[in-house]
Amino acid sequence: MAILEYIVGRILQMVPVLFGVSLVAFLCIHLVPGDPVQIMMHGRATPEVLATVRAELGLDQPLPEQYLRFIGGAIVGDLGKSIIQKAPVNEIIGERLGPSLFLLVYSAVLAVLFALPLAVVAALRAERLIDHSIRILGVVGFAMPPFWIGLLLMVLFGLVLNWFPISGYGDSFVEHLWHLFLPSVTIAVFLAPLLVQSLRSAMLDVMTADYIEVARAKGLSRRRIVVKHVLRNAAIPVVTVLAVNIGWLLGGAVIVEYVFAFPGLGSLLVRAVGFRDYPVIQGLTLVFAVIVMIINLLADLSYMAIDRRVLRR
Amino acid sequence: MTTTAPLLNVAGLCIEFRTGDAVVRANADVSFTLTAGRTLGVVGESGSGKSVLCRSLLGLIPSPPGFVTAGSVRFEGGELLGLDEAGLRRVRGTAIAMIFQNPMSGLNPVWPVGDQISEGLRVHRGLASRDARARAVALMQQVGIPSPEKRYDEYPHQWSGGMLQRAMIAMAMACEPRLLLADEPTTALDATIQDQILALLVELQERTGMAMILVSHDMAVIAETSDEVAVMYAGRIVELASTAAVFRAPRHPYTLGLLGSIPRNTGDTRLRPIPGQPPNLVELGPGCSFADRCVFTSAECRVTPAALRPVGPAHLSACLFPERMTAASA
Fold first, then answer.
1. What is the mean pLDDT of residues B133-154?
2. I want to staple A80 with a disulfide (CB 3.0 to 4.6 A). Which of A44, A95, A236, A279 is the partner?
3. Whether CATH 3.90.45.10 fits A102-274
4. Is A128 on the interface with B (CB under 8 A)?
5. Shortest Cα distance, chain B CAs vs residue A116, angstroms
């Protein structure tokens, strides 16, 4: 079966990438000039303490052995211990992974909901006033710094109107939706213009295709042509834009996380870098890489679901 | 012999394309009638206005830049020009259907072929999915697509060009149109497939009694299929008569040139191409637009407007001096 073959093939392709990524994550601790343990301890530790930490991190072992230990641990979910928090890295990351992924998916869904009608209107009224207005709106949304949009939304909807909470994560799914609304909108305002532009231009492209003229000659309504014959074809480049940006936002949402005092992976990374907490940095590098790979896999599967020509090699 | 009311009556059709300051007259004063069950062949070079003519009948010309500036198109007694989108949708795909030049790009790559054939039945006839599928499978059988039940769910990229054109024909025939517009239906196909597709069109026409407008740049295709021929040049019909009359005794030098450029495998006569290029439609002079390439041309040809007029029984020509041709061949 061609479809199954395709999926298995795509998953198998991930294996060498994963290997490369693990190598990079592992080596990042050794890229530090000088003695990583010295730097981690900010140069204020006695030789005895340094030796203890070095042994704790396994840095006194030969390099290949260190890598095997690292990869062996990673496979069973053991990413070592944080130097600062003295807790297992997988627990520290695990605590924030859920909220971060929630924020990411929520933002992406909102961005698509914003972008879809705007892009369709812009494409159907291309080069008219409404199209130009949507473009300007997009430029403004994309150009405004996220912390500024976040603060504006917070002041208006959080403090003045009191509709949404301005921080936290909540305890249930519905509460998550409620708490993360403003941060997600902030990210969506940045993301939506990218989607509008790519969907608009893809739609304009598809609308000149021969099969669209054939569909018109068949007597189909404009609505049916747009929904059935244009949008599906135009979705492919949009999936690409979305996938690339979601991967980036995983760590890039840090400003929004700070503005809304939200416990996400981005702020964890920034803090870990600040404290030179290498086990956490390593762990996050690996987790980010795996998530980006999963996002790419999902994008590939979407291409296949949209257009069967993908299966032809 | 009883006279039947024409199925289609096109009168004085003028279509312009406006881009920036330039105005291109893609169709100028085009008039003809078509009786039910008959085939009109429209022949001419690229850019002569054949495809624009076809598209205008279904309101498929994008506007802007295209504008119908004059004329009327009466189909079964009703005027088609000026219909709104909803009115056009009731005609498109049901009363008048169209097939296109390039079947490879004419089907949507993301939907199965069968689904696109049955779509018209679901939309226009309100058939349920299962009934539409059964009807589409029958249509696929009729147009010579082997094992249609199995191929219904295949995608366009899995099919050959000839099979895709058969699918396009099945799609056009779905709602039993009274008029089929075929815009260069065989141009993109291999020579052997061309003949099969033409034979299929003729067979379907005999079976259903529909009328057909067959656009081609190829006189041989027209000879094989058409009852009447309209020869187009620079947006005008320059000769209009029965196929037999046009092939036996053409009354326009351009038609003569087209006939001279058909390859024949009898004798050793070389092909005689028409010298020169078609005129730029933006810069047409007042006279006959073929004057610059015509072997019989004279000074009057460049200044006197050349309108289509009777030159024999049921034979129209826009040549100002058709007698020069007869004199030359005699």
1. 94
2. A279
3. no
4. no
5. 20
